[in-house]
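re: ur question from the group chat, yeah i did fold both. here u go
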Amino acid sequence: MGTRNFEWNWKCKSTFEQPPIHVYKLEQTLSHPLKQINTTSKLETVSHNEKLSFIDPLSANFENADPLSLMAAQEDWDDLDLNVEPVKAPKRGLEMSDNPWIEQRTAILNKFTTTQKLSISLQQHQERGSSSRDIASNIGLKNKLEQLDDFEELTLRQLEQLSQAEYVETVNSFGKVLVTAWNHDFRVKALKVAIQCAKLLVDTSVVQFYPSKFVLITDVLDMFGNLVYERLLAKAEYYPSGSKIMSPLPENFTPDMVPESAKETCRNWFYKIASIRELIPRLYVEAAVLKSYTFLTNSELSDCVNRLTLMTRGIGDPLVAVYTRCYLCRIGQSVFKAGPELIRQNLKDFLLLYEQLFSPSVHHQLSTQKVDLASYLGTYVPALDWMFQGIANSDRHDFLDELFKLCMEKRNKGLLLNSILSTFKPEYIAQKAEVLVQQISSCFGESFPLYTLLKMMGERLRGHTTSNSNYIKREIWKLVSKLENEGDYLSCVQAWIPFIIAHSSTSELNIVLGDIIDRIGSSTKFSCAILQDIVITVASNFPDMDQLFTMDKFLPLLDVIRSESSRAMACQRILEIFCKSRTAESTADPVTTDALTFIAKVLHDSVNALSVDDEKRQYGQLISQLIMKIDFGDFEQQLRFYVEARATFMNLDAVIVTLVHCVNRIAVETGKKVKSHHTKRTAAFVHACAAFSYITIPSVTSEITRLRLYLVTAQIALFNQSLGQADACIASALAILPQLPLSVEIDGKMCQIQPYLSEFVKNLLSTLIIVPDCFEQGMLYLTRGLVNMLQQCVEITGIAAITRLYLDVIRMLSVAARPEYPYHVRKVDSNDILYGSDPKFLTEINSMSSILLEEILNNLQTLGEQKDLEEQAAISFELFQYVIEIVNLESEGMATLAYQLWLLSHKHKCLDKKMAMRLLDSLKLKLPMYPANSAFSLLVSKLKI
């Protein structure tokens, strides 16, 4: 294993068409065109002419000197200050922001990690004899080559026991050193940093980390290639046609536009890179600067890439070789949009040596590192996927078929099948489905994980049809059933369950679910999240929810999910799917309703003291939607269902509120059906409905919600002539008033209680108008109870709010005094009929009104003492309006009161003047109706109308 220290001369028939392996003739070469053989140590002494019997093109151009050594002799970078800002990202260099590669590199860095210690070998310059600056002054070939040997006499500095984070930080520091050296015009140091980085790719001592190492190192190499390209671009200014002013090269320049000086600099860079003696650094660095060839020629780029491709055949380690090929393909696509031919050739070369991955030398290396073969093969996946993806995205279907055929001919083809399944288009996978199933079957017992192939194929076939789905389903399930690990088994089931649902009957799917239950059993060695996803997938892909619950294995599958959170999430998604699929429909199927109730109960029981309010709210809304979609069409059966649901879902307020509304709804529907002419049976039923609501409402947490529910229930009971239930609900609501908090939570927000209390009281007063008195309780006993409770709410809402509520009660009493009420409930005799304007009843109304009026006047005085003058004026004006509209102003006392209220409302200039003017205009219209000396006329004159 490892990179050979010499090059092989491969004799092939052509550039792309590579003969079989046994045809190659391998010849070992001990010489290097850039290094003279050291004759003083191991080899015999030869003459100077014999040493230089080859033609060295680089020596001719640089006076027989190695350009890398010559440049090194001209620069001294040992004491370089690294505290320099890096250069900006190049604009037109190598495209590092290619989206597919960015996604790929991120996935590689996240997946291929290690806890083992890593090492980095750094080569440091150690001078012998004369200084490096003396090299530039020597002119003889012999002396220069000897000095070159001196310059490249290196010592190794080993950085060992590095953690992964330290290794990444060190490699990133190489990039900073490279950029800083470049900023200081130390080009050779930048080049040598790139070379040092490329050499790190030879090391596969921690094989599972190699893909991440490749990503980190190639980032530095891409940076170097960008710097070289941008430098050449800056030097390549030219004279546009017809202009005498030099301009930068256009975006799509041609080599003939590049001045000769820039071309010469470009050639120098490639001469330097050609001086790199080791194969892998020379190959990687030249690939990194490949785009700079565009300054010299466009026609030879393809030949250059082909030459680099052939050079990869000299790499002995197959893992190093495949990532080198991946880098070449990526650079080729980025530089000149290389077509699939380049990737095809590299993949064919890889396939020719594919058996090397399973050779004894590889097994020995893995045994030394204590790495299993499956993990080792997994390190090839990113590089192969990148190259396979390039073929899959092309329109060369012949290349696809050729590659598919070559892969199917290999033994131990699991790695190749994985890349085909993950990169080829689903349509192609569906077309070759039968062949792929057979090939996957042949991989049983091999090193590459079988479950990975099964899972990948299931995911790729999702939503696609095949020619023989029954065969595929049958054969795949045989393989899945053979998997020993429960987690691998469930992962495959998760991938294939949509395909099974689409091509199976209900009974077949039920058998599959039963197999899952039997296989998992009491095991805990699996992810509950996967099982949760399987359940959700079955529910979401099944065409008929009613048919789904006929399978006797579906609900038991929920019990296998041992994680409460995962089970609750599965139940939540099932209910969401059902409610969404039945937007305008209801269900009465007993099997479906029982199953859904069971699922909802599981969701409800997952709520505990640690559950957040938002979670409770979501669960409550979802179960409420379910309850409203269950309709048996029979009111009595529906009420029994609601009674059972109340016992099942007592911990969720939203569900309790929904149940109360649902029961009230069927009570109203019952009253409508009989047109308020209740029989004994229907009367008993509506009484039962009212009793259900009356018993259920106290379990609701929110006081405002309880008030509203009591009032609605009382109104519906009144509608159904259930007067006793109506009185009981109103009395219960009144008992809550003193217990109200200062603020309540409405839709997750804290709000003041005052507006909600005012709304409730006004709604209640409109109901009390038509509620008949109970003779046992006395006249207007509910209204008296309301006033008594309001007196206890002063600390909750304040004097001003309570005073306004008193005004509302007075208005209600004025309506109650009328001989005929403005509205009634069918079959219910209100107080206007019961009392018939009886004087005792009117006296009671007047007495209550007087007490309330006195209380209001006292409160106005208190507001003045509290300096709440604005509220005092506003309430005074409201009372003034009531007095002049309802009270008999022929009474001198009432007229005086009205005048005093008018003065009080104007005292502090807090009155709405437009409203006051409209009120005065209405009084002026009434003036002819009264005698000239009446109290009303005196009032009008005082108001100066």
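okk and heres the other one u asked abt
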Amino acid sequence: MSSSSSSSSLTCGRLATWTVIAVVLQFLGLLLFVLGFFPVKPALSGVSGPESYRDPMSSYGEDQEQINHFSQNQLRSLYTDMSKISPAFDRLILMVVDGLPAEFVLGRDDQPPTKAMMEAMPYTQSLLSHGKAIGYHAKAAPPTVTMPRLKAMVSGAIGGFLDVAFNFNSQAFRDDNLLGQLYRIGWKMVMLGDETWIKLFPRLFTRHDGVSSFYVKDTIEVDHNVSRHLGAELTATDWDLLILHYLGLDHVGHTGGRSSILMIPKLKEMDEVIQKIHTSLDLSQDSSNGRTLLMVVSDHGMTENGNHGGSSYEETDSLALFVGIGSKLPDYASATRKTASQVDVAPTLALLFGVPIPKNNIGVLMTEAFDSLADDQKLRALELNSWQLLRLLQAQLPALSCGSYPCDHYDGAQCSGVKVSIEQKFCCLFSKATTLHSSWTSQKYNTSRSNNNEDVRSTVAAYNEFLRASSEWLSRRATDKPPELLAPGIATMAVSCAMFLFILFCLCKEVYLKENQGLLDCSYKWHLDEVYTLVVVVIFVFSMGSSSMVEEEQYIWHFLTSTLYLIFLRKTFQSSSPGAVPSLGNVIKGLKSSNHCRIYSIIFVLICGRILRGWHQGGVNWVHLPDISKWLEQTDSPTIKSFQIVSLLFVIGSSSFTLYLLEPKRRIFLVIQVSLFLSGFLLFMHIMEFQDAIFGQSNYSSTLIAQCIYATIITTVIVTVLQAPWVRPVSVGDHQVNNESQLVNSVSKDVEIRSLLPAVRYSLHLIGLTYTVCWCLLQLLLQQPVNAMPVLLLFFQILGSMFHFSVCETHSKHWVEVAALYFLGMAGHFGLGNSNTLATIDVAGAFIGISSHSTLLSGVLMFIITLASPMLFLLSLVFYISTKDASYLLLSKDGDLGHLLQMMIGFPCLVPLALNSVMLTAFTVVLFAMRNHLFVWSVFSPKYLYVLATAVCVYVGVFIVAVTGIYTCLVFFLRERMLRSKAKTKLKS
């Protein structure tokens, strides 16, 4: 009675309904939390105008209507008159070298660049050494991807963290920015290069020629397309701003890393462009078009592997090089050892060219750029920058009113004392600077020159102190996170997590009762592997509260997963008869071969895991240490190719052997074999012919072959899924249904379901194997060549685990086995070189087989590459279902299609959903708790993006498993019903 009531309490319909409700609640909670935690950064409305040249502490009226009717020339003259600073330049050439680390040009840690780098850019180095240019290490804020970095340079504002997602589909930039200010005073603009500029600033350019920034295999034409216009544009007189955005160096980094053989030639190419511009224009003297400033900048740097997106020094070390502004002390050190923030570009250029500073700017003037100005104009520039930041502070701190906090003495203790509020501190620093400025203005003609210079330096230092303090506070200030979204979001996710766990508990209880039906002692006994699986989840949850653990998460998964399989090994040894010593000889002789093979299979999985652990060092702190992948990259190309070919042959050979064990007797096996061999042959061609051409321009033949591989793999999967359930004959008992009368006489539902189980398992085995093999072949195409062997090791881990779990003797609980596969998938994720920083995302592979840029297709391929291992082990759950005999779980009283589905796909679907829900909810709580942490945007937020991507991966994988199981069972039941109906019809006739 107890078992019957239990089974009736959790039907397949209820299981599916409550699972869908839990998924919907989790998605709703995620949506609320993400919208609350990652909102679009709030910005002050409107644009800066004449009011930016007035003291924000004084009251004034503004006839905005009259200003709106000003012509462009009138507005330009008004800005010049009100600013009291004559524009230092008349035209600007902004040369953006995408991905160029500042240390390539300026060196690092007060050391000059390497000899190779200096020889690669001799003309640029000569400009620096002769005092004709000054360079800055302009620190970029994460995420270090192109679109938000361009926004930062032209607006001086740090955008929201989710700009990393919008980077692949840029929208028009509506906030106040430098280009918009220049456009209002009549500047004509030309843009050549990255089409991101066109998307951000539509209708601003007089002419443009954009190229896609995401097709990273193109390292040649993407720059030639810019340089081919350069000669004509340098002689043209119809532009005031010329933007040249070169993408080739960034693409070289993505495809070959910093040490790519193409890096030095690309740097030489950029140096030649700088030389051509500098020699074509008289940058140091007046010309018919006025003085022209060449500014060479980079949006971000790159890691050793050539990627970017994170917050490491290598990624944030961007360049800001002023060519045409000399250093007061024309020596190399003073020209190259300056530091700034990337947002400092916006206010500097705004005041150099006579337009208001953008309203949301948090940048600080690069004072060396104003050394050629008179002292009063230099102090005026600092004053205007201070007024703009003070307005921004007043918007963030409504209580800020400097008239309420008089400062009679300006010692450091008063301005930074522990008892001083943030409002008092800013007012004190601002008042100090303005008072010194006023004092200098009133006394500048009455003091000696030496005292005058000293007063100027003191005033400049006071302004810089206020500016830096304000800028740092504004940059660190967390974006407003409305609790009305965050609290309901977390609560909804917690409810969803509790639902998943409760559903899984009910399913475990029901299965346990069925397993122990008829036994007197039905008390549940926890085993070591079950307890440890729960401990793994607890350890992981608590470890995510540490930034160091997040950065080095790979160690957690490798260690915990290996320990779980060691527990499986111990359990298998304990199941052996006393005195039995496993040996290869015993296996060959057939003595206890089943148990011994299970032992060897676990050892095999552990060995594969250990090799995976050493393949990539991974993480953040020890990524520089040697590993197998670095050793391979230092060898010649044939060595890496040999690893790729060996991996390919083993994947094809292992899959063929596994198919052979199914005793194939139908055409579908021949179709699958031919498809796999065809895919393998095409992959072999791609490896041998086109692997070395990855750094060059897109090759039509390689793209065509990759597309053929895609088509073959997709066709193989679709045909297998649709046809596999129709291959195996339906049987009743031990006899196939060739005798209609026998079918009609079979009336027991239990017999009916038990008769279908072998056929269902047979079909799922075929489908699951096809899923797994085709996914591995796809990864061998898309992954970096050095990752071919790790893909093979992951495939071997699946085969070894499936063999171990297929033996019913002393089997572990189903939820433990599915959890073990989930853990293997997470460990494999880091074994492929991934980490919790955005810099390890493989962008280059996302364009294999794509002839032109497509945001959707590239995004899908990037997702497939990044989540390769978790998805592989989720797809292998179809294979896992076929290894388990669920017939002992079926009761004659309630054996039906729904119950069969519940027993077969319940654990493979619920366990990943429950584990993902626990980890997702836990890290959401961690992220909320760390919202004011120093590393919230550099460590915890990137990790959260990976958590969200993993959740999507789990949803997709579970959906595929569920649909495959439902479709297969439905086909067999439909076939059985059709045959039964046909037999009855014949008997009646």
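fwiw on the second one: The beta strands are 91-97, 133-139, 189-194, 207-211, 241-246, 292-297, 317-323, 338-341, 731-732, 735-736. The mean pLDDT is 80. idk if thats what u expected
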